[in-house]
Every structure is written in C-alpha cells, then in structure tokens.
Design a protein that fits this description.
GO terms for molecular function: asparagine-tRNA ligase activity; ATP binding; nucleic acid binding. Homodimer. Its EC number is 6.1.1.22. It catalyses: tRNA(Asn) + L-asparagine + ATP = L-asparaginyl-tRNA(Asn) + AMP + diphosphate + H(+). The protein is α+β, with helices and mostly antiparallel strands. Helices cover 31% and strands 23% of the residues. Bound molecules: adenosine-5'-triphosphate (ATP) and magnesium ion (MG) (3 copies). Adenosine-5'-triphosphate (ATP) binds next to strand 12, strand 16, strand 17 and helix 13. One magnesium ion binds next to strand 16.
Length: 477
C-alpha cells in the first residue's frame, strides 16, 4: 500500500486504490468521521470509520490534534463537501493529544492567543495557509531572479561596519557583558573581542551586495536582517527577511521598472499556485470585516486586490509633487493630518503615505527623488544638488514596502557626503574602492519579505506572517 499526502489523495487520481495517509485529526464527529490534515493543503481528507470495528482504547485517543496513520480504500464520497473519502480499514495512533490540555481546539482562537502558541499555531487553518503562501512567495522570489539572470549572493550576517545607518543594531560579542575589558580611556576594548573589533548583526546586505554587483552584474540577496527597532508597530520586526537586488549599469528608472515587474511576478505566481489558500484567507477576512464598522472595511476582497496590483501600473510621483498634493489635501472630517507637512524637506509619515495610496491615487505608488537630507549617504545626488535618486514603493494597507535608490557612483561626491555626515571613512575603505576602480552607475532596492507576505495574505499584523516573530521583550521560542 502506498502512502500519499492529503493533497495527492484529494486530487482524485488514486480512486479505488488502497492508500495510507498520515496526519493530525482536525475534527471527528458522529463516531464515524475523522477529518485528517497533514499540512499539504488547506483541505482535509474525510476518513469514514466504523467505530464498532475498532478497539475502545484506540478510539479514545482519537481527539483533535492526535497524529494518526490511516489505511483504507479511497472511494467517491457520498456526502457533500468533498469528492473523495477513505473507507478506513486500519488506524494507528502516532501520538494522542489530551483534549484537557491541547490548546488548539476546533474553535476560533484569537490571533493574540495563537501568538503565545507560536509552536503550535501552524496546525490551524489560518497559519498553515499563511505559511504555505509564505513558502510559495519565497520560491517565486528566487525563481524571478534566477530566470532573469541574477546571481544569488550570500551577504554576511555578522558585519564589521555600522555605516549603513538603516537602523539600530544588535551587538555581536563574546566579551563578558557585565565586566568587559576596558581601554585606558575607559571604553570597551573590542580588541579582546572574538573578531578583534566591534561587530553587529546586519541591518541590510546592500553595501556588500553592491560590491558583488560590481563584478557579477546582476545579483540579489535574500536573507535575515536585524534591527533593534524599539517600536511596537504592526509593520516592524526585530528579525525580518529582506530581498535586495543590486544591478550594475541600471539607473533609477530601470530600478523602478525592476521592482514593479518583480512584485507583479511574485504576486501572480502566488495567485496561480496558492488558489485554495488565498480563497480560504479571503473568506476569513470577509468574516472578520463583518465585525468592523462600515467605514473601516476594506473595499476590495483579497484576491481582487492582488489581481489589481498585478495588472495595473504603479503610479510614479516625485517627492515634490507628493508634498504639493498633501498640502492641498483634506484627509478627513477634521481636514488635516496629525502631522502637518508645512515645508519641503520633511519626511513623510505613514498617514501621508497611506493617504496617497489609499485615497488619492488608489493604487500602489512609487515616490522618487527625495530630499537628500532625509535619505542615506550612498544615494545618487541629482543635478539640483538637493534631491537624491531614491524611491520608495507604497502599498495599500501597508505603507512602505520597498526602499531603493541609484547609488552615488562618483568618488568625490560620495566623499563629500561622508565627510558632511561625519561617517568614519576608514570603516568604508572597501566600499570606496568600488568608486576608485571601475565605478559605474548602479542601483538596487530592499523589499521587506514579511511586508510582501502581509499584503499577499491580507493579514494585519507582521507578527502573524513569520513563524517565530522577534519583537521587543519577546524571544520565547
Ligand atoms: P520603515 O520606514 O517602515 O521603518 P525603513 O525605511 O526603515 O522602513 P529600509 O531601510 O528602507 O526600511 O528597508 C527596506 C525595506 O525593509 C522596507 O521598505 C521594509 O519593507 C522593510 N523593513 C524595514 N524595516 C523593517 C522591520 N523592522 N521589519 C520588517 N520589515 C522592515
Ligand atoms: Mg525604519
Ligand atoms: Mg522608511
Ligand atoms: Mg526605507
């Protein structure tokens, strides 16, 4: 007898065969039906059991959450709701799950409750669907780049430079934290540390990816990134995965084209390959929306929203145009934003970003040519001397999903910037070498993978789209 996954059995290709399947009990009812799921699909296989034929002690163990091995004949189902079912001949219990203490019962649990059970929540329909979508999306990421001639570069997790300035860093050290060796000046003596200097977890692989783009041409990195963000938002994690392509000879326009094409590809791939999970998540959202006041409900169902993004051109707007729009806008009854933008040069807050996307343009927006003083040192200065070739992509319900730029390729301009910002140029000697030897126009972007998963699943909190979320005061698992 062959062992199959639930997904294979439901495909109906094995009708009338003797089959074996392993899985966890979702529900059982009328002493006759066991719904079994093994994680391969959102749907369960119905197992029809003549309970009289089985030992009482064995039957007692068949509770929600128990792991079973079931053997029998795959037949057409008489009942509604499923095409096939198993007429069970044998059951073996891998492991029971005492209903008195097993937390994941067949009822609706709150997302907050499930966050405390992060090791078990993947056994719920919602989390198994999210994690299958996440896996599919990550495959699509690699597929897109590999198909398009990019090389995957593994940039380091531990870095010796903290010049990027993208976020607060986590120190990596083998020194005794309570009693570190000190220099004569009373500062921590990193010479005694494992690497002989101060080291941190990476906040972005960009600078290293740039070095590889200047040799391999088209590269991407896709790995974990760490920021000691001391804020508890629904969009920030302390450990998240970032996708960072970098392309030699691409300017900002080509960079925007790449980002838009990439996002559309991975969303489309997910629409094609995660139909059932997306339908499930959409129904879940529709039920959730019904509990909200009308004004807060989302206008578009999940799948329609994904199709909309994959089929429509993103609106490209310069920072200066956006500021003009925001100054003239009346976002709500009170007719103003919480944070009023009164001068050119101010950084946009998420209320402004979301207004532009959700109310004004009603589509994803690419904002470009930001004021130099609110962006990182490595971005290409425009001829106006005030703005840089930066772009952010803003998404409905999310805000910023991508941050990217054309990089400053001119050594003299870069050096001036580094001096003005008081960055230690010795730390960046290797980065500056790229401008000394065979420099060229190049550009890239960073996309937070979890923000993409948030968008694709319609979930509202970033803690619910990564297996084990890392946030302030939370590293239980
Ligand atoms: P934000 O303004 O949301 O804090 P950022 O401008 O600090 O983001 P970048 O340095 O531009 O972020 O990083 C590139 C992308 O990485 C962002 O567009 C976002 O998608 C993602 N990202 C940044 N910080 C986080 C985080 N703490 N958790 C999850 N994703 C993040
Ligand atoms: Mg940030
Ligand atoms: Mg930002
Ligand atoms: Mg950014």
């Amino acid at each position: 007898m062959n062992t199959f996954s639930v997904k294979e059995l439901l495909s109906t290709n094995h009708l009338h065969q003797e089959v074996v399947v392993n899985g966890w009990v979702k529900t059982y009812r009328s002493n006759r039906f066991i719904a079994l799921n093994d994680g391969s699909t959102i749907n369960n296989i119905q197992c029809v059991v003549n309970f009289e034929d089985f030992d009482e002690n064995l039957l007692k163990q068949i509770n929600t959450g128990a792991a079973l091995k079931v053997s029998g004949t795959l037949v057409e189902s008489q009942g509604r709701g499923q095409k096939v079912e198993i007429q069970v001949k044998e059951i073996a219990v891998h492991g029971g799950a005492d209903p008195e203490v097993y937390p994941i019962q067949p009822k609706k649990h709150s997302l907050e409750f499930l966050r405390e059970k992060a090791h078990l929540r993947v056994r719920t329909n919602t989390f198994s669907a999210i994690m299958r979508v996440r896996s599919t999306l990550s495959f699509a990421v690699h597929q897109y780049f590999q198909k398009n001639g990019f090389f995957y570069v593994h940039t380091p997790i531990v870095t010796g430079s903290d010049a990027e300035g993208a976020g607060e860093m986590f120190r990596v050290s083998t020194l005794d934290a309570k009693n570190p060796p000190l220099t004569q000046e009373g500062e921590i003596d990193y010479k005694e540390d494992f690497f002989g200097k101060e080291t941190n977890l990476t906040v972005s692989g960009q600078l290293e990816a740039e070095t590889y783009a200047m040799g391999l041409g088209k590269v991407y990195t896709f790995g974990p990134t760490f920021r000691a963000e001391n804020s508890n938002t629904s969009r920030h994690l302390a450990e998240f995965w970032m996708i960072e392509p970098e392309v030699a000879f691409n300017d900002l326009d080509a960079n925007m084209d790449l980002a838009e094409d990439f996002i559309k590809y991975v969303i489309n791939y997910t629409l094609e390959n995660c139909k059932e999970d997306l339908e499930f998540l959409e129904q879940r959202l529709i039920a959730e929306e019904k509990t909200k006041p009308q004004a807060e409900r989302s206008a578009m169902p999940l799948i329609e929203k994904l199709k909309f993004v994959s089929e429509n051109t993103f609106k490209r707007v310069s920072y200066t145009e956006a500021i003009d729009i925001l100054r003239k806008s009346k976002p709500n009854k009170k007719k103003q934003f919480k944070y009023i933008i009164d001068e050119w040069g101010a950084d946009l807050q998420s209320e402004h970003e979301r207004y532009l996307v959700e109310k004004h343009f009603k589509c994803p927006v690419i904002l470009f040519d930001y004021p130099a003083k609110i962006k990182a040192f490595y971005m290409r200065l425009n001829e106006d001397g005030k703005t840089v070739r930066a772009m952010d992509i803003l998404f409905p319900g999310i805000g910023e999903i991508v941050g990217g730029s054309q990089r400053e390729e001119r050594l003299d301009v870069l050096m001036e910037k580094i001096k003005a910002l008081d960055i230690d140029e010795k730390e960046l000697w290797w980065y500056l070498d790229l401008r000394k030897f065979g420099t060229a126009v190049h550009s890239g972007f960073g996309l937070g993978f979890e923000r993409l998963v948030l968008f694709a699943t319609g979930m509202g909190n970033i803690r619910d789209v990564i297996p084990f979320p890392r946030t302030p005061q939370n590293a239980e698992f």
